[in-house]
């Protein structure tokens, strides 16, 4: 089960932060539907070759101050 919840408005901003940090990810790859946090985490783990803890930490960090441009 996913450790985070992301709504649509937050996702649009978070997606921009993720794309800035990981330029190899496309908009199509970052398609997200609220409630599918687990699928997003699994995809990012596989695509970025990072651990679950790292991916969840990165997403949470981006959500903490959603108005900040940093991830």
TrEMBL record:
It comes from the Bacteria. This is General stress protein CsbD. It comes from Pararcticibacter amylolyticus. The lineage of its organism: Bacteria, Pseudomonadati, Bacteroidota, Sphingobacteriia, Sphingobacteriales.
């Amino acid at each position: 089960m996913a450790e985070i919840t992301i709504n649509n408005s937050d996702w649009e901003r978070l997606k921009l932060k993720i794309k800035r940090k990981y330029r190899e990810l496309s908009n199509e790859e970052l398609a997200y539907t609220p409630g599918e946090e687990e699928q997003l985490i699994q995809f990012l783990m596989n695509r970025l070759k990072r651990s679950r803890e790292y991916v969840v930490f990165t997403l949470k960090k981006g959500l903490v101050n959603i108005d900040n441009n940093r991830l």
